Amino acid sequence: MSYQLRLAAAAVLSAFACPTFAETISTVTVTSNPLGKGEDMQVLTPAKVLAGPELRNKISTSLGDTLGGELGVSASGFGAGASRPIIRGLEGPRIKILQNGMGVADVSSLSNDHAVASESATAQQIEILRGPAALLYGSGAIGGLVNVIDGRIPATLSKQVSGEAELRVGSGNQEKSGSFGLDGSSGALAWHIDGNARQTDNYAIPGKANPGNPDTARGRLPSSFTREHSLTLGGSYIQKWGYVGAAVQTLNDHYGIPTAEKSFIDMRQNRLDLDSKVLAPWAGFESLSMKLSTTDYQHTEKTEQGIANTNFKNQSTEGRLVLNHHAWQGWQGSWGMQFETVKFSALSAATGRADTVPVTKSNSVAAFVVEQKQIGEVLTSAGLRLENVKRTPEAIASLPARQFDLYSASLGGLWQFTPGYAAGLSYSLAQRAPATEELYSNGPHESTATFDIGNPNMQKEKSRNLELSLQKTNGLVRWKINAFYNQVQNYVYGHTDGVKVDEEGNPADDAEFSRRYWSQARANIHGAEAELSFNQTGEGFSARAFADMSRGRLENAGNLPLQPAIRTGFDLGYREGAWRGSVKVLHAQKQDRLASFENYVTPSYTKVDLDLSYTQLYSGAQLTWFVMAKNLLNQDIRISTSVLRDSVPQPGRHFIAGVRTSF
Question: Which residues form the signal peptide (predicted)?
Answer without folding.
Answer: 1-22
